[in-house]
Amino acid sequence: MLRVKLLTGRHCCEHLIVTELREEHLREAYIVEVESFERPYPWEYFRFIAALSSGYSLIAICNGKIAGFVMAVPYEGGLAHIANMAVTPEYRRCKVGSALLSSIEYLLENNGFSLVFLETWVSNHAARRFYEAHGYRAIRIIPGYYEWGEAAVVYVKLLRQGIIGRDVPVLSGSL
What we know:
175 residues; alpha+beta; Aminopeptidase; 2 domains; eight-stranded mixed sheet; 4 helices; 8 strands; globular
């Protein structure tokens, strides 16, 4: 368990705990999913991602309730996919997302992963700024990725020097 003390604003929690997401947390984590997205994953798909990311899923607990979560799916060859991440609107801009992201990166790197990737909606400018501020680089746009037809931006981050080398190509131009 990682304990992080944050003093970032009047509505933010003073003590944030980042710990493993377990089966008994799923329902409350799903509430965060529903509160966080205009188009949340269906419950069964949410549970499926949680199962795939077993051992690589974390929750942030603030004031006794789940404030956010992150789920990373491991692949062979040192690659991991952040398949889902959310912070409840109440705790956004309180460093909860940053604590979750740095914690999952630490966990992945210490378990031999070299590269992490994720995708987000092209129109989700807040998420895109967040990931870019944390060292992620946009490498591809996938048209029509989401079921409602929106494109996805794929981001990558090199966690450590691995078999893939150092250079990751960056998308140029306006997204």
